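Write out the bound-state structure for PRP.
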Amino acid sequence: MSDDIGILVYIIMKNDDGGMSMKYITIALAKGRLADLSIEIFESIGLNCSEMKEKSRKLIFTDEEKKVKFILVKASDVPTYVEYGAADIGIVGKDTLLEEGRNLYEMVNLKFGACKMVVAGPQELKDELDNLNNKRVATKYPHIARDYFQIKKGQTIEIIKLNGSVELAPLVGLSEVIVDIVESGKTLHENGLIVFEEICDISARLVVNRVSMKMEKERIMEIVKKVKEKI
Ligand code: PRP
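---
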């Protein structure tokens, strides 16, 4: 949702049998705005995240007492780590989930990181949007944009995939419109663009690996329950 780097958090928890066998419960977090808020939630449910708050280039952080490990990954990779079981749980924006289309359980709407996925462009195109044939749509979210225009609206579009500063595209003639997330609206406003259509609401979600949900149901549901209580 924001920075492209992310955080993967491994949580290792002792079994009830006194720790004879130890299972890893892994949580992937998207770095940036989401990471800071996610760390707050994990601290509030009793995990020691202090090491994660220190500035460093480490990728793994450990809460030895609770047997918790935190690992940093790229934000858009969080669903991949969770789907493949390298992480049992992930905290990631709904935008990334929709774009990645991974096979996961979406368990909790964490409510933070709230923003909207929109179609935006220059004021002068506002009333012409549906009449523009083969319009070029610049976006970091090609799947979301294609689903919206082609499946929902039945329009043929050309997707121009960008990796950031998407608002620039209509200003320099790279595209007619953009599909992007809007939080405060400041970026659009300062670049002379307006929202044409809202595609969907976005916020952080807690997701769970499908196999982990069967194998470690009790411990995962305990984390889910505690997190839900903190929302
Ligand atoms: C996101 C998004 C918009 C901006 C919206 O970009 O893609 O550009 O934030 O926020 P606002 O409505 O509060 O202005 P991000 O900060 O992730 O940077 P990027 O363009 O480099 O991807």
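---
The pocket of PRP is lined by residues 2, 164-167, 180-187 (CB under 6 Å).
The longest strand covers residues 193-202.
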